[in-house]
């Protein structure tokens, strides 16, 4: 015998509320419709489902067992309704975030933490990638949004890019590095110390080459390559090595007093860091809410970085004069 699940739900509602009228009101149905369902169930089963004459209505042993099944169905239905409401409001769901490694680790991960303090029902599924990988992930639907640096010439018509931070690189080192307090920095100083190479595929690789080309430096001694952000920071702390890092990344470590910035104004890339999505009706409210959080966080971060940047006595003339006086092939 196969019973209609809707009939079991109505039976559970009557048991829960103690009356047909009350059960009908709970389900948004008429009293007569629920009453017909109970009568039809009893006739089909051939057994009474409620003890006659009891008010509030009390189920028989069979009625109670069947009511438990209807209660489970009713609970699942209510849970499904709650899931739908929560998803549409952006209070639950999953956000698939992709981003460049160093920036994700240093800057975005704290923002994810602050987001989930107010939105604990949203799961963030984060992955690493450089620009080509992130674009492929967006195209295939594997990620919802990418936080990536890009230049104007790289933008495609079917993608939306919202700049959130200007790309600015700095020369980073340990706080005790000899160059930190040197009044005049010459090219020989840059060449003298070992360097950390950026991750393969990172735009910082091209930035490093452009810096060396602009300054007339043929090459530098690369002693460490391929490390994660934490390993690069630890390497800088334990050596006199130099590394090119985004200013925002170096800024995020300022309170730890382990690495610092050499106040040398180096050539800067022509790109911005921003949020990349596909141009389409966005079907993930949780992602929209997360993007809104990133906007607010980056607005605050941008102001703090600009204030910090303006406090650094960047060296221009002495270094450039030294470069012009002693050109290197």
TrEMBL record:
Residues annotated as domain HTH lysR-type: 1-60
GO molecular function, one term: DNA-binding transcription factor activity
Highest taxon above the source species: Bacteria
Keywords of the record: DNA-binding, Transcription, Transcription regulation
Gene3D superfamilies (UniProt xref): 3.40.190.290, Winged helix-like DNA-binding domain superfamily/Winged helix DNA-binding domain
Species, as recorded: Pararhizobium polonicum
Protein known as: LysR family transcriptional regulator
Family to which the UniProt record says this protein belongs: Belongs to the LysR transcriptional regulatory family.
Gene Ontology terms: cellular component: cytosol
Pfam families for this protein: HTH_1 (PF00126), LysR_substrate (PF03466)
